[in-house]
């Protein structure tokens, strides 16, 4: 019954299909819909993938020794604390499968990432959705919402789609209130973009809070969304539970090589961050000049009030060859989310939005 009642995750349609529907040339379309890295994959990743072609007939290394080794050194954690997934989505679902069942509940915020309710419901558990505060997580209310049957809390920092984040002090106050048998999943998919010095680094809190699990991904700042690799960092005890249910070959050998290469590629990460910072400033300035209300974001996307029905605005932008993401499924019918692109892509978006506004 839990599975039957699911509202499936609705990813955006492929650019080619949208272009065909709109009668547009796909090569002229600007896609700012899925929070992807506008730089494209790092050349270091592409080279690594090319070098692995001879291994396509071989099974991947189930333990992902190479990536585990590089990542554990980079994050200064034990290799056994890491659990890999086919994107961090996979790890989120795995966490729910391992720790939730009928009769349990999980707490998350209104406007939080849409995969949490799906994962909770698929595990047969009940979702407790806590009203948001200023589009962000109301951590105090979330702590109060924890019941005796609650086994998991999902926090997203930065949050998608609102781009809000909370500080280390706020997180610590929250963690102190959570009973130790409740697992706190801190989803840090956009961590690398949150450059503010007050933004918490979940890794530094793991020793103090053994019930904390971080999830991160190579899909965003590391530019490997199509490769599908994400991971959690947790206590060894929790990762040993997750690894019991993890599909043994859930990350392929091509993307493992790509991820190892980009982890060493500081230049790519710095460029990703810089392009994002510049693009965010460009889009915010554009919003201000058009008097558009937006939610300040610490991620690689920004959500704004379309001033009309969000899906209508999305359709009109689409006709002009710009794809953004409606967020009506998050309960935000008047808003749209736009991913930060390259300078000329951001300009195309702002010009198209201005045309829509004035038509
Ligand atoms: N968490 C959040 C908050 C996200 O926005 C996303 C991507 N949309 C993910 C997790 C999952 O990303 P991936 O599976 O590509 O790692």
TrEMBL record:
Q: Which reaction does it catalyse?
A: L-histidinol phosphate + 2-oxoglutarate = 3-(imidazol-4-yl)-2-oxopropyl phosphate + L-glutamate
Instruction: Tell me the PANTHER family matching this sequence.
Output: HISTIDINOL-PHOSPHATE AMINOTRANSFERASE, HISTIDINOL-PHOSPHATE AMINOTRANSFERASE 2
Which top class of enzyme applies to this chain? Answer: transferase
What is the native source organism of this protein? Endozoicomonas numazuensis
Specify the protein name.
Answer: Histidinol-phosphate aminotransferase
Does the keyword Transferase belong to this entry?
A: yes
Entry EC no(s):
2.6.1.9
State the similarity comment: Belongs to the class-II pyridoxal-phosphate-dependent aminotransferase family. Histidinol-phosphate aminotransferase subfamily.
Ranges for domain Aminotransferase class I/classII large come to 28-353
Instruction: Print the keywords alphabetically.
Output: Amino-acid biosynthesis, Aminotransferase, Histidine biosynthesis, Pyridoxal phosphate, Transferase
* Pathway where it operates: Amino-acid biosynthesis; L-histidine biosynthesis; L-histidine from 5-phospho-alpha-D-ribose 1-diphosphate: step 7/9
HAMAP family with a match to the protein in the record: HisC_aminotrans_2
Top-level lineage group? Bacteria
Q: Which gene encodes it?
A: hisC
Outline the subunit composition. Homodimer.
**Which InterPro entries does the entry mention?**
Aminotrans_II_pyridoxalP_BS, Aminotransferase_I/II_large, HisP_aminotrans, HistidinolP_aminotransfase, PyrdxlP-dep_Trfase, PyrdxlP-dep_Trfase_major, PyrdxlP-dep_Trfase_small
Q: Is the keyword Amino-acid biosynthesis assigned to this protein? A: yes
